[in-house]
Amino acid sequence: MPKLLIKAYFNVARSLLGGLVFDKVIVANKRQLDLFRGITAPFLLTHDFSRISVIPFGCERHDDHDKANGRLLLSSLSEGRICEEDFLIGWLGGTYGWFDLESVLSAISKAILKNKNIKLVFFGADGRRQSELLGFVDEAVKDNIIFLPWVEFGRRFEYWAGFDISLVWGGEGYENDYASRTRNFDCLTLGLPVVQNEDDEWGERLEKSGAGIVTNLSSLPDVVYELSGAPGRIAEMHHSMLNLASDFYWSRFATALEAISVDSMSRGRRLIGIVGCLLLFPALLFFLVSSVFIMIFRGK
């Protein structure tokens, strides 16, 4: 929890810095636009709303990464624990506290009990975190939860091509409400179907395109189990994901960025913004420390 608290205050601090000092601010979706406006409006910056633009995150073009080779790479990395016949679910991001992993693992356990070929793969979790996560699953399915080291970023698509689906699940709270789920854009490059919970950006996008499934915790076990025996459905979602990808190539992001026209701040205006930030940051630090003490006190 302290890490989440620090992250929340860091996000506020950088948003204030951007709103008060930067010439232009880019956000990924309409929800983030509203959040940023809400942060800056109290400082009489409503006239600066035009400096905030929505440009969705981007993805690389599809490069025909071979699924069989990806499966071999994952199998080698797992020392043989991953087999050709497995239905592989990739958790492609970190195992951070703002994800509701306890509920997710509990749900996936139910699917695994019905099909022992289902395996869920995490990356980059240290030994302590692995023990914590395994504590959320039944003893009978622990061998189906696989932890791998981080792979080289430039080669991630080679490995991730071996997965059947990607699982994304945000916990209840502001992170799930406002996040753009940047890892989903990597799934666009691969054509990797996504199963996720509801949010304000990707949920509607996946449902309209047929590139993934938006569900809830109570239905997640059935969704995963059904997909594990439906290669035809997986293939359809794969093609839908690739069709969706063309709307988000980085070239389109660059074109939208180049089209933005904004006047630079005057030196006086920027100086006022910098001074304002310097005055506000001690107040943020005070509230952060106060929140930590309150958290510790309540913990007792």
From TrEMBL:
Keywords: Membrane, Transmembrane, Transmembrane helix. It comes from the Bacteria. The chain crosses the membrane at residues 271-297. This is Glycosyltransferase family 4 protein. It comes from Azotobacter chroococcum. The lineage of its organism: Bacteria, Pseudomonadati, Pseudomonadota, Gammaproteobacteria, Pseudomonadales.
